[in-house]
Amino acid sequence: PKDLPRANWASPFYSSLISSATQVICQVLNRPGVKALRDLDANFYIILSLRNFNRGPPMLPADSQDSVSMSISGGDLGLCCWTDYRMEGTKFHFSEYLRCFLKKLSLTADIWDSLDGRRLVPYQCVMQRTEWDQIKDSVRPALTLQKTAYRRARGGTTAPSLQEDVMPRFVTSDDQPVSSMTETTKVVVRNTFLELEEEILSAGMRRIKSDCELRKLVLV
After folding, report:
1. String of DSSP letters for 73-136
2. Residues 50, 162: contact at Cβ < 8 Å?
3. Cβ distance 33 to 47 under 8 Å?
């Protein structure tokens, strides 16, 4: 009600309370060691990407149980024989391929296909930076030999190339199954107007006969 007196005497206390709370928050967020934690968090993971495999999936080092698809000079690594990588599904996923590749090299590491709850595009994966630093000197030369085997087996001049520490790219809603997407309003384009399709109008909506009131038109 307008006739009630206002407690103006409390206003200075609110200002003091807000000022004190701001100081406490700043002290907590900038206390000793927090900056180091932020830096550690920003570099805790590394994004790896595999590109340029337009002529088919990359290849794997072959062992005694694999059928050899290509033989090359393996150098000091002894990776002379290579076989085709058989995908688990119909679509290539770098995370799955890298796990198989490391297994062929007798290496292990945790590899994920999502970051912060968001799925990465199929040609990217994520690892802990410390784990990658431990195995990268063994993986890099092996992947270089893979490129040689790939070019000889598939032809052409390009081959799957590893890119390190790239920006993450996430799967968009368009790549999700239709069933997981929310139903959107259908729009009909007619001449220079957009109009809502009549079938999606609720059954209880009263139908108006006037053309100007029949549909809600939006000028393009």
Report:
1. --GGGT--EEEE---SSSS--HHHHHHHHHHHTT-----BSEETTEEBPTTEEEEEHHHHHHHH
2. yes
3. no
Q: Which two tokens stand for residue 137?
A: 């000197």
In whole angstroms, give the CA distance from residue 50 to residue 37. Answer: 30
- 212: pLDDT strictly greater than 80: no
Secondary structure of residue 111 in the 3-state scheme: coil
> Could you say which DSSP state residue 76 is in?
G
CA angle 146, 147, 149 (to 5 degrees): 65
Distances (CA, A) of 44 to 55, 109, 131: 34, 15, 10
Question: Closest by alpha carbon to 102, among 52, 142, 149?
Answer: 142
The amino acid occupying position 83 is T
Show the tokens assigned to 52. Answer: 């340029």
28-75 pLDDT, tens digit each: 888 888 888 878 777 899 999 999 998 999 999 998 778 888 888 877
